[in-house]
Structure formats: structure tokens, C-alpha cells
Specification:
The complex is a heterodimer of chains A (530) and B (503). With 530 residues, chain A is mainly alpha-helical. Chain A has 21 helices and four strands.
């Protein structure tokens, strides 16, 4: 079909939300119903389009870019940057995930407005975020990628800053006392900006160096990957560029030790902010590694792999141990993200098709499961007005349905087989047993595998610790005799798809692998010849 | 008598006529708004020949094409000059829009005010076309002279008096330094026309006095663009001046200084880059860093914008330093600075416009009084966020491309002079975010200050001139952010002159 092949459909998936945001901003503040319905309809149409793309996608050619705009669609001619977007097997699942989460977040918001009440602004930010997220996944031009990568920052900054946690906290080193939301929003922004500034320098360095091989300077990821695989970028130059890209992506993932913005941002953000952060924004970093850093600088990726592997397993262990020390439920879930993203990065560090497949399914699974966990944590905090696990307890008795859902999400998160979380962890460990030969550090990666396996045990430990504190036991005295309404309609509508998705991917991982496998195999083959 | 290309001179002629007309109108009528209207109409009319000159190739009546050289190469109308003339007229027009409501708030002289603004714009427009030292210095002093008077316009306020005096003394000092430098260069090369100096310079570049002359000229211009370490006057002058004048100083007056730097560095001294390149590198790095670090501490929005303009000036200088110090092709650096100036003009004028609206409604430019702005004035708060985040360089707002152009130019140099300043610039981009975010934080995250009478502030209508200015600048910032190709072409357009002078 024409509108699919000429990139129109994909452009709509990217830009409909921001158009929706414009409409939302034009509707008067008082007409809340109109605001909500506009946002919901826009996000549903976007999701429907994304699903159409997923159905029409030619899975037998998943390693080629499909539904794209022409590679030379002009954008900034002076620097040879193009508006080139397309999906392949690697980005398709993430595009669908982003559109899907956006819908769920809007449904959940229906009657969960964080204070201060301002649906108009909040919905506009959610929709702008949607454009930034999908745009990052489909951009095939480095400048375009950078633009989308950064577009998500401002809405999230405002989300945390306006609707975030108003508790006071001490700021280490500076000795200030600051509201949580102010501290977290600034920290989130400064960390990410710092990383992405160096990422941009890396992009520009690639742009200028590409002229030596191509005869003209190019920002095209496809062209850069081709000449990168042919060995155009080497030596100190490649090392520094990889360093720049690494800083940009690692902060976003986040990898230990630049993860410290994450627990603060997640904890301070309003529920839907945490969900979007965990489910999608973190994936921009891992996606950047897979799409940009690995194919364009394969030799550097090989020499950096052990280092990335070390940071990943430190992240796994550190995240898990930190979880065990938490009393704040949201903070615990936030630290669990550090651990889970550690598995994703470990998969990527093996530089094998198994490992990268594991990373992508891990990304999708983490999006579904941690999204659900943050939703539930938010709803519980909404009811109990606390996230302190010492005070919570006996949820199974007070709100049985909520308790069951939390139990399900926790089980999925700790990697129970037949649920989505299993595949990413299992395959990442499997891949570490047999990493790319060129790395030449098999025994080192086997140590990573063992440490990672210990990490899964710790994951089970802290998830069960959370369940014990929150779900089981007798309700604390302060809750006895109070009425708690169990899971309500908007919550069911927002959560059920996540539960179903978790089960579906757990039982039929082919839903994801079917799209990713060919693309990953071809990526690994062209970059590393494996 | 040689025939003159009146078409090429038309923008300056129209402005000169407007200068006189504004004074006359002020003289014969008591309705001061007529003087403002005269000034605006004249300014608008001056934009027309700028456009016809720019698109001369595609116009029927326009017979001569290509660059126009007048007065033996002293006054040149080329792509670079036209882009900047356009910016200056736009900046002057916007300043008038900002001034109209502002002047009515207190007992100010009005007619003379508009007269001085138009004079300053005239100076800046001539500046963009000047290609020798005499006409450049005359033009620059027309800009500065008007600025000295305008800075003291709030005559009842000691701060304004201080601003005017400080600006005057520093301005005269800068002029003296520059004239001394020019006399040295003239003595050694025997000419004061840029293109002839460029040809003669390599012969005398070993003479220490010549290097001294170059450095003195750059020092003088360094004061004009408030580059560190010649920036001390800037925050005080900005804070003391009437705010619309500050807006003009930070875009028009500083811009004229930058035009001087661009012309002198690239057109007069392109063959002696080893003399001024490293100096520019240091000045750029210092301006960015000092401007940004000091800005973090500011609590007054206007002072904050003052330091911000110092830092932004550093970004504009960065490509100079990188390209010249490593002796690379200057064309791209030149284009990057021009691109930066175009985007900066729109976003900084917008930031001042919003600041004036908020400041005059609340009667304060202190950040703590701006708390909770978005609750009672959501539209204004959003535009405030747009402009300050654009200044911070956050996509998809215009400022990102300005920064991007600078990064491209510095990295493109391909030497450590370029890489190192790019790294300094990227760290500074992060620091800059901290204080721009402070303004946004006040408006969006902080509670309203106690005792604020929201009822009197809510829904009070925006004065239409300033509302128009905000609308135009917002649109410009958004369009340039999403379709940066529009301004990127301006940058490359201006670098054509390098082909013309054979570099």
C-alpha cells in the first residue's frame, strides 16, 4: 500500500501525538472530558497505526528497513541531514511498545490525577513524550535521532518537577535541603544532558570522518554502519567517539555508576511519569547501543565489551543489593530497574545474536513488567498515602485483587519461566557462556554469567521481601477498619493489557523474536562477521 | 560624479530619513505615539529593500546582480551584510514593540527615545556593510552613542545613571583602544580598507607592532561584545537600563560588535590567523565558562540574562577561535557564528519580551517573586519556558541548532583547538541549563509568593504590541528548531563571501 511504503503511516505514528498535544493545549482547561477524550483518541489512533504496521510488516525481510521515508528526504540540506525514518525488526517491537504504553498511561490517568490538578498540561506532556520516544526508535539519521532523543527531556522534567513528590530530602555533598521533585528533576536533566552533549560530539566526529571514505559527510546511520563495518573508523579516533556515545547512552540506560539519577527520578515522578520512564525512556539508551554504537564502531565495541560487561554485572548485583536495603516501595522498584537493565546490557556486551535478542526481549519485558509494578505502586500509594513498606502490609487481606496483581508482577519481574521476564535474563546468561570469539574473554564472560545467575537469586530475594512486607501478614493497626476500594475500572483497563502481554510473550516469545531475530543476526553478521 | 547604486543604499537611506522624520514628528505633535508609529513604519520600510536586494536574482526590476561594491569597496552589500541588516532591523522593530507599553509606565521622554533607537539601528545596518575601519568605527559609535543615552533613560533611578555612565566610560575606552590599534595597522599597511589590509598583512605579520595593532582592535571589540575579561560593565548596565533597551543592547548592540569582529577577523586579518586565533580561543572559553558559572548565582532575571548574553557570546566566538587557531578554512566558522546570531536574536528578544510582560505585571524582576506563575498566567509561563529552554539549547526549540552549528564548526576544524573548545562548550551547555532551568523552576514548580493578589494578575490582557512581538519570536524559535535548514542556509549564504575575496 502506498501510504505505508512512502513513510506516511510511520510519520503519522511519530507525529500524531504531538499534533494531539497541540490540540490539547488549545482546549480550555475547564473542559476536562474533552481533554481526556482527545488525548485518548489520539493515542488510540496512533496505537492502531502502529499495530497496522506490525501486521503489514514483512517478517521474512525483518533485517531490512520498511515503511520508511525516502533516504534522501531533505531536512537540513546545509549539513546533509535527512528526514529518514523507517522500522526494522529491532525497532518495530519498541515502537509498538511505546504506542501501547502511551495509551495505557492515558487510561490510567482517567481518574488518577496527581496534585496539582492540571490534566491539560499533563496530557500534553504525555503526548509530546510519545512523539519523542517513537521518533527515537525510527530515526535513521543521527541528527534526527539526537533531536528526538532530547525531545523527551523537557516533558519529563516538567512532569517530575510539577507533579512530583513534595517530600524534603537532604542533598549530599552540597548540604542543601530540597524538595524531592526539584532535586530529582534537575538531576535527571543534568545527567542526561551531560551524556548527550558528548554523544553529539561523537556524532559530529563521525560525520566529518565519514567524508574520508564516502567522499561526502553523512549522518545516515545506514551509510555509517556500512563504512563502519568495513573498518573506516579505527584507532584513537574510534575510541574517543565510542566514549562519547557510551557516555550518552550509558547515562540513559542507566548503567552503574551513572545510574544515580534513576532512583531519585523514579521515586519522585508521578505514577505515570515513573511508568513512562521505566517502560520506554530507559530503552532509548540500550537501543542507541544496538542501533548506533555497535554497528558503526564494531571494533571498538569488541574492545569495550569486557568493560561494559563488568559494569553490567556490577549493576545487576548493586541494583539487587540496593533493593534489599529499601523501605520505599517505589525506590525498590526503581533499583530493580538498575538490575534488569544490567541484564539487558550484559546481553548486548556479548555481541552475539543470542545476547542482542535477549536484550531486546528484555527491554520489552521490562517495559511491560516494571510499568505494571509502578502502576500498582502508584495506586497503592494513592490509597495508603504512604510508600513505606514498614507501614504497609496485609494487602492480600485489605485488597485481594491488588495483592494478586502485585504478586503476579513481582513473579514476572524475578524472571519466573513462562512469563516475559524470564527470556531476557535466561538468554543473556546463556549468551555470556559463549560470547563473540573476537572479544577473546570467554572465561571472563563465564564469570559474568555466574555473577548474573547470583543476581537472579538476589532478584528473587528482594521481590519476595517486597511481597512479604506489602502483601502478606496482618494489616498494620492504622489500616484496620478502614475501607480500601480494590482495583477499579480504569486500573483494570490499564493493567490487564500489561498482564496479558507479559503472559503472551512469556509463552510465545516468538512474538518478539519473530521480528527481531533476522535483524539481529544480520546486524551481528555485518558488524562482527559472526 | 560617479553614479551611485541607490538600491544598495536604500535601507540606510530610509533609516536616515526615518531618524529625522521621528524627530520632526515629535516636534510638531503632542501625541507621542505618532513618533513611535513613524519609527516603526520607517523601520518596516527599510526591511523592504533588504528583501529586494536579497532576492534580487528573481526580481524583474532588479538589474544588477551579485555583490554590490560601493565607495571603492568600503561599503559592500552581499549576502552576509543583508542577513545581518535583516536581523538588526528585526531587533530594532521588536525593541520598539517592547518599548511602547513600557514607556507609558513612568515619566520618560518618548520622542527622543524612538529617535535614538532608530539611530542605533541605522548604525548597526551600516556596520553590516562597512568594509573599512573608518566607516566601521563611525557606524559602531552611532550604535554605542545611542546606547549610552538610552541606558540612562530611567533618569530618576541612580542605577540607570550608573549604567549610562559606566557604559559611556567603558565604551570610550574601547574606542580609544581600537583607534590606537587601527592607527598602528594603518601605519604598517598603508591602508584602512579590509580587503587591502588582508592582501598587505602577510608582508608585515612578523612586525611586533602589527600584532599589537591587531590585538588592540580586538580588545576594543571585545569590550563591545562583552567578552570575558572585558565584561565587567555588562550586568550593571543591563540591570540599570530600561528593560527594552537592555533587550536591544544584548541583541542589537552586542550584535553590531560581533559584526565588527566578524568583518575585522575574517575580512581584514584572515591571513594572520596565528596572531588572533589563540587569543580568540581563550576569550571564547573564558566567556562561556565565566558567564555561565556566575549566572548560576543570579536571582534577578535581567542580571541573569546579562550573564547569559556573555556566555552566549562565548559560544559565538568559539568557532572563531577553533578555526583560526588551527589555520583551518574559515568559511564554516563564519557561517556558524552568523547562524548563531540569527537564532540568538529571536530567542533573546523573546526572552526579554516575556520578562518585560511578567516584570511589569508583578513589579519585580526577582525570581522569587515569579513563583507559581503558570497557575495564574499559563500562556505566558509556557512562552517563558520556550525562550529560556531555547537559550539553553534544548531541542526542538531553535537554540539547539545554534549550539549544533557551533559544535559542527568546531569539530569540523579537525584539530585539538577545535575538539577542546567543543568539549568546553558542551560542558558549558550543561552548566547553562542549570540557571535557565532556575527561571523555569520558579515559574512552574515553586509556590506563589505569599500575599500575591492573583485576582489582579489573572487574565489581564497582554498589550498588543508586545503580544505581537512574543508571537513572532515564539513562532521563529519553533520553526527554526524544527526546520533548521532555513537558517543553516543563511549561514552558508554568508560564507559565499569567502569565495568572493578569494580565500
Amino acid at each position: 500500500m502506498d501510504w505505508l511504503d512512502n513513510g506516511l503511516a510511520l510519520s503519522l505514528v511519530v507525529f500524531l501525538p504531538v499534533v494531539g498535544a497541540g490540540i490539547v493545549l488549545a482546549i480550555p482547561k475547564a473542559q476536562e472530558a474533552a481533554l481526556k477524550w482527545t488525548a485518548l483518541i489520539v493515542s488510540l489512533v496512533t496505537l492502531a497505526l502502529a499495530v497496522v504496521l506490525a501486521v503489514q510488516f514483512d517478517y521474512s525481510a525483518a533485517d531490512t528497513y520498511q515503511f520508511g521515508t525516502a533516504i534522501d528526504t531533505p531536512w537540513i540540506e546545509a549539513i546533509n541531514a535527512h528526514f529518514h525514518i523507517a522500522v526494522d525488526g529491532i525497532s518495530l517491537p519498541l515502537v509498538v511498545l511505546a504506542a501501547f504504553i502511551t495509551v495505557l498511561v492515558i487510561i490510567y490517568s482517567w481518574n488518577h490525577w496527581p496534585e496539582p490538578h492540571n490534566p491539560k498540561l499533563l496530557l500534553a506532556f504525555v503526548l509530546i513524550l510519545a512523539t519523542g520516544m517513537t521518533g527515537t526508535f525510527v530515526a535513521l539519521d543521527l541528527v534526527l535521532f539526537f533531536l528526538f532523543f532530547e525531545v523527551v527531556l523537557l516533558p519529563m522534567y516538567f512532569m517530575i518537577g510539577i507533579w512530583g513528590d513534595r517530600g524534603i530530602r537532604d542533598v549530599p555533598i552540597f548540604g542543601w535541603k530540597m524538595e524531592m521533585r526539584l532535586y530529582a528533576s534537575l538531576k535527571f536533566f543534568v545527567f542526561t544532558l551531560f551524556g548527550s552533549a558528548f554523544m553529539l560530539l561523537g556524532f559530529l566526529a563521525l560525520y566529518f570522518r565519514s567524508g574520508d571514505t564516502l567522499g561526502y559527510n553523512s549522518f545516515s546511520m545506514i551509510e555509517l554502519s556500512e563504512i563502519g563495518a568495513a573498518g573506516a573508523f579505527t584507532g584513537t579516533f574510534a575510541f574517543l567517539v565510542f566514549l562519547g556515545l557510551f557516555l550518552g547512552f550509558a547515562v540513559k540506560v542507566p548503567m552503574w555508576p551513572v545510574h544515580t539519577w534513576l532512583p531519585d527520578a523514579h521515586t519522585a515522578a508521578p505514577t505515570i511519569g515513573s511508568v513512562i520512564l521505566a517502560a520506554i525512556l530507559l530503552k532509548l539508551g540500550t537501543y542507541g547501543f544496538v542501533r548506533i554504537a555497535l554497528p558503526i564502531l564494531p571494533d571498538e565495541a569488541v574492545s569495550w565489551a569486557p568493560f561494559i560487561g563488568v559494569l553490567s554485572v556490577i549493576g545487576i548485583i548493586y541494583g539487587s543489593l540496593a533493593c534489599l536495603a529499601q523501605t520505599d516501595m517505589k525506590r525498590l522498584i526503581a533499583y530493580s530497574s538498575v538490575g534488569h537493565m544490567g541484564f539487558v546490557m550484559l546481553g548486548i556486551a556479548t555481541l552475539t545474536d543470542v545476547g542482542i535478542n535477549a536484550a531486546i526481549i528484555g527491554m520489552v519485558a521490562h517495559g511491560l513488567i516494571t510499568g505494571l509494578l509502578f502502576f500498582i505502586a502508584g495506586s497503592m500509594a494513592h490509597r495508603f498515602h504512604t510508600r513505606d513498606m514498614n507501614r504497609l502490609g496485609g494487602t492480600m487481606a485489605l485488597m485481594p485483587k491488588m495483592g494478586v496483581l502485585l504478586g503476579f508482577a513481582a513473579m514476572a519481574s524475578l524472571g519466573l519461566p513462562a512469563l516475559a521476564g524470564f527470556w531476557g535474563e535466561f538468554m543473556a546468561l546463556m549468551a555470556s557462556f559463549n560470547p563473540l570469539e573476537a572479544i577473546g574473554a570467554d572465561s571472563m564472560f563465564r564469570v559474568f554469567m555466574v555473577i548474573g545467575a547470583i543476581g537472579t537469586v538476589l532478584t528473587a530475594g528482594y521481590m519476595l521481601y517486597m511481597l512479604r512486607s506489602v502483601n502478606f501478614g496482618e494489616p498494620a493497626e492504622e489500616w484496620v477498619g478502614q475501607e480500601f476500594h480494590d482495583v477499579e475500572t480504569s486500573e483494570w483497563l490499564a493493567w490487564a493489557p500489561l498482564v496479558l502481554g507479559t503472559i503472551a510473550i512469556g509463552v510465545f516469545p516468538k512474538i518478539v523474536f519473530g521480528a527481531t531475530n533476522d535483524a539481529v543476526v544480520s546486524l551481528v553478521k555485518s558488524a562482527f562477521g559472526g | 560624479m560617479p553614479s551611485l547604486d541607490y538600491h544598495a543604499l536604500l535601507p540606510a537611506i530610509i533609516l536616515a530619513v526615518t531618524v529625522i522624520a521621528t524627530l520632526v514628528v515629535d516636534l510638531v505633535t503632542t501625541r507621542k505615539s505618532l513618533a513611535a508609529i513613524t519609527a516603526m513604519v520607517g523601520m518596516f520600510a527599510a526591511l523592504v529593500p533588504v528583501l529586494t536586494l536579497a532576492f534580487c536574482d528573481s526580481l524583474e526590476f532588479c538589474t544588477s546582480t551579485g555583490d554590490r561594491m560601493l565607495f571603492g569597496g568600503s561599503y559592500v552589500v552581499d549576502g552576509y551584510a543583508l542577513v545581518l541588516q535583516g536581523i538588526f532591523i528585526f531587533a530594532g522593530f521588536t525593541t520598539l514593540l517592547l518599548s511602547i507599553g513600557y514607556l507609558e509606565t513612568d515619566r520618560y521622554y518618548e520622542g527622543e527615545y524612538y529617535f535614538l533607537i532608530v539611530s542605533a539601528v541605522l548604525g548597526a545596518v551600516v556596520m553590516a556593510s562597512s568594509r573599512d575601519f573608518i566607516s566601521m568605527i563611525v557606524a559602531l559609535e552611532v550604535v554605542s552613542g545611542s546606547g549610552f543615552l538610552l541606558a540612562g533613560w530611567r533618569k530618576g533611578d541612580p542605577k540607570s545613571n550608573e549604567a549610562s555612565l559606566k557604559f559611556f566610560i567603558i565604551g570610550v575606552l574601547a574606542l580609544a583602544l581600537m583607534l590606537f590599534g587601527v592607527s598602528l595597522v594603518y601605519g604598517l599597511t598603508g591602508t584602512q580598507v579590509f580587503s587591502e589590509i588582508a592582501a598587505a598583512a602577510s608582508g608585515v605579520s612578523d612586525v611586533p607592532l602589527f600584532a599589537l595593532g591587531v590585538i588592540f582592535i580586538l580588545l576594543g571589540l571585545g569590550f563591545k561584545v562583552s567578552a570575558v575579561p572585558f565584561h565587567f560593565w555588562t550586568p550593571d548596565v543591563y540591570e540599570g537600563s530600561p528593560v527594552p533597551v537592555t533587550a536591544w543592547l544584548s541583541v542589537g548592540s552586542q550584535g553590531a560588535g560581533f559584526v565588527g569582529l566578524l568583518s575585522v577577523c575574517y575580512l581584514a586579518f584572515p591571513t594572520v590567523t596565528d596572531v588572533w586565533g589563540p587569543v580568540m580561543w581563550v576569550v571564547a572559553a573564558l566567556s562561556m565558562t565565566v558567564g555561565n558559572v556566575v549566572a548560576i548565582k543570579q536571582t534577578n532575571v535581567i542580571r541573569l540574562l546579562g550573564f547569559s548574553s556573555i556566555a552566549q557570546g562565548g559560544f559565538m566566538l568559539a568557532p572563531f577561535g577553533a578555526a583560526a587557531a588551527s589555520g583551518a578554512d574559515l568559511g564554516q566558522a563564519f557561517g556558524a557564528t552568523v547562524t548563531y546570531m540569527v537564532i540568538y536574536a529571536a530567542m533573546n528578544l523573546g526572552a526579554f519580551a516575556v520578562a518585560i510582560v511578567i516584570g511589569s505585571r508583578l513589579g519585580s524582576y526577582e525570581l522569587e517573586d515569579w513563583g507559581g506563575l503558570y497557575r495564574y498566567a499559563p500562556g505566558i509561563a509556557l512562552t517563558l519556558a520556550v525562550f529560556f529552554m531555547s537559550l539553553a539549547g534544548i531541542p526542538p526549540l531553535g537554540g539547539w541548532f545554534a549550539k549544533f552549528a557551533v559544535f559542527t564548526a568546531t569539530i569540523g576544524v579537525g584539530s585539538w583547538w577545535g575538539y577542546s573548545i567543543a568539549i568546553v562548550a558542551s560542558i558549558n551547555a550543561v552548566i547553562a541549563f542549570v540557571y535557565y532551568a532556575k527561571v523555569v523552576k520558579s515559574a512552574f514548580f515553586d509556590p506563589m509568593p505569599e500575599g500575591l493578589d492573583v485576582g489582579s494578575l489573572e487574565g489581564s490582557a497582554l498589550p498588543s504590541p508586545i503580544g505581537f512581538a512574543i508571537g513572532v519570536t515564539t513562532a521563529a524559535v519553533l520553526v527554526m528548531g524544527v526546520f533548521p535548514g532555513l537558517v543553516a542556509n543563511l549561514g552558508s549564504f554568508s560564507s559565499e563571501i569567502f569565495a568572493a575575496i578569494g580565500l
